[in-house]
């Protein structure tokens, strides 16, 4: 049996750390990941991190889960989803993303075999752009683009005000 996986929490980059607690049960995620590792035999490192625009990702032996997931059900689905990628990649050598093997593994693990999460991400640090010339405000973004122009007047001088908000993840029906 493998030792119990501990999810490490990495602080958000570029902004002050939020006082809001995680909206999901970390112990449930650790227990689920330990069961998956015992069953499939692919050890992974897991961490809760500052993913603002997606639920999670996987690269090699690392799984990352967004700290902004709104509930335990979606967080568990994300762990299963990303672990299915790890098994497909590391055990079977598949680089096919959301292909047939991954869909089979994800369904077997209890994850929705879909490439998009459901629900919302909460307490996401967003930045609201405002043009310094025409003073127009635009919808907040999770990431600030390197080169930004005002869509109204074309000016390049834009201020970015930090706000905390809800970011919805759209899912296919």
What does this structure look like?
With 173 residues, the protein is of the alpha/beta class. It has two domains: 8-109, Metalloproteases ("zincins"), catalytic domain (Zincin-like, 2-Layer Sandwich); 120-168, no CATH class. Helices cover 25% and strands 23% of the residues. The chain has three helices and six strands. It has helices spanning 26-40, 72-90, 100-109; strands at 8-9, 45-49, 56-59, 62-66, 120-131, 158-168. The chain has a four-stranded mixed beta sheet, with helices on one face. Strands 5-6 form a two-stranded antiparallel sheet. Helix 2 crosses helix 3 (100-109). It is elongated, with a radius of gyration of 19 Å. The model is unreliable at 13-19 (pLDDT under 50).
Under CATH at level 1, the class of the largest domain stands as: Alpha Beta
Instruction: Write down the Rg.
Output: 19 Å
* Mean residue pLDDT: 85
DSSP strand content: 15-25%
Please name the CATH architecture of the largest domain. Answer: 2-Layer Sandwich
Assembly state of the chains shown: single chain
Number of helices, where a helix is a run of at least 4 consecutive DSSP H or I residues: 3
Concise overview:
By secondary structure, the chain is of the alpha/beta class. The chain has 3 helices and 6 strands, in the order βαβββααββ. The longest helix is centred in the middle third of the chain and has 19 residues, at 72-90.
């Amino acid at each position: 049996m493998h030792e119990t996986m501990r999810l490490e929490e990495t602080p958000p980059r570029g902004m002050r750390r939020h006082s809001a607690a995680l909206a999901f049960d970390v112990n449930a995620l650790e227990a689920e990941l330990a069961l998956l590792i015992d069953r499939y035999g692919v050890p992974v490192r897991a961490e809760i991190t500052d993913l603002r625009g997606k639920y999670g990702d996987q690269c090699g032996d690392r799984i990352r889960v967004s700290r902004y997931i709104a509930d335990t059900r979606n967080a568990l689905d994300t762990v299963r989803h990303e672990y299915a990628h790890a098994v497909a990649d590391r055990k079977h050598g598949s680089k096919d993303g959301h292909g047939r093997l991954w869909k089979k593994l994800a369904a077997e693990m209890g994850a929705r075999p879909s490439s998009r999460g459901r629900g919302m991400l909460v307490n996401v640090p967003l930045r609201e752009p405002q043009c310094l010339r025409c003073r127009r405000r635009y919808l907040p973004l999770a990431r600030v683009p390197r080169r930004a122009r005002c869509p109204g007047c074309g000016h390049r001088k834009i201020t970015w005000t930090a706000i905390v908000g809800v970011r919805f993840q759209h899912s296919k029906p």
